Amino acid sequence: MSHPHPELGTPPKLPKGALRVTPLGGLGEIGRNMTVFEYGGRLLIVDCGVLFPEEEQPGIDLILPDFTTIRDCLDDIEGIVLTHGHEDHIGGVPYLLRLKPDIPLIGSKLTLALIEAKLQEHRIRPYTLEVQEGQRERIGVFDCEFIAVNHSIPDALAVAIRTPAGMAVATGDFKMDQLPLDGRLTDLHAFARLSEEGIDLLLSDSTNAEVPGFVPPERDISNVLRTVFANAQKRIIVASFASHVHRIQQILDAAHEYGRRVAFVGRSMVRNMGIARDLGYLTVPAGLVVDVKTLDDLPDDEVVLVCTGSQGEPMAALSRMANRDHQIRIVPGDTVILASSLIPGNENAVYRVINGLTRWGANVVHKGNARSTSRATPRPASCCTSTTSASRRT
Asked: Which of 39, 110, 232, 317: CA 20 to 30 A from 382?
């Protein structure tokens, strides 16, 4: 939803030598991130994402950034820098490129691969420039330097934008995991070097940044997953973001260790994991991943389904399973793992899905009970932690 401020009026003409920064989405909300940098009559865009609708917005599929202010100056856009491949940062790109298909896209290898696959559905072949951490590129009047940041998707980048008016740094989403699975840390040395040079504007973006303490290392999730896999006696259904490559890798490793086959459910999950595998970001043992249509031939205790819907999205596979609106039917004894952290604002939708899954007899493991599950000794799935308390919360 847009949050207009009519009291602000029309922005004045940009003075000569000044830099204007205009957020067209993502400010004060989680989603549709898009920021426009304007200098000397030229524009640089950082990210162009979507926001998913909430329950009081029936009939709406996606919420886009407000393109109104740039519709008349599309020819002035030097390029779109994409910090990483999450939908709230790249999902709006096809709709902007419909207005002008030749706007260059700048990003890392995985980020560009994900957006290129998405653009194929819109029959758009973009011009792209692949960059990596430590690289510095002149994009029109903007001097951009790219910095490695750790996030829940590989290849995330921050960008330092230098202009004669000063330097702005947009971090993109990041976290401070000191033991990342791919060994790629947030480059604090680069940020320190930039601060010594002089950062005039820092645009920092990190969900739950106000929560005190340290981010649990991604590696800690492996122990939880192994314990859940050891306890489960029937099917395991894991819901995650379709771009959370590191989490999916941990699921594949656990399935391989416990002799289960894995099937990806949903178009975005199948597409993204195929891209990650082809680019070397995902290691898949031979014979581990099978087509979902072959699962009926396997015993329940040899099956793992990986799908979307960890945030309660109404059209995602897990929500449809909870509503009995999917070809995969939840049965008593199934174990469902919500393998992504809860994004603020999605609580009601997630608890509704948990209630639905529990109603059909599933044992649901989520952040609220996962650590107690991981400390327990392996036991039959029927004794796993239930989600009755979650049902009462709604």
From this structure: 317
Closest CA relative to residue 234, chosen from 336, 318, 307:
336
What span, in angstroms and rounded, lies between the C-alpha atoms of 142 and 170?
13
> pTM of the full predicted structure?
0.86
Find the length of the chain. 394
3-class DSSP state of 144: strand
Two tokens, residue 86: 């999450």
Beta bridge partners of 258: none
DSSP class per residue in 305-335: EEES-TT--TTSHHHHHHTT-SSSPP-TT-E
CA 214 to chain centre: 20
Contacts of 393 (CB under 8 A, 6+ apart): 351
Q: Are strands 261-264 and 236-239 parallel, antiparallel or unpaired?
A: unpaired
Enumerate domains of the chain plus CATH numbers.
Answer: 6-205 (3.60.15.10), 220-393 (3.40.50.10710)
pLDDT in tens, 164-185: 999 999 999 898 888 787 888 9
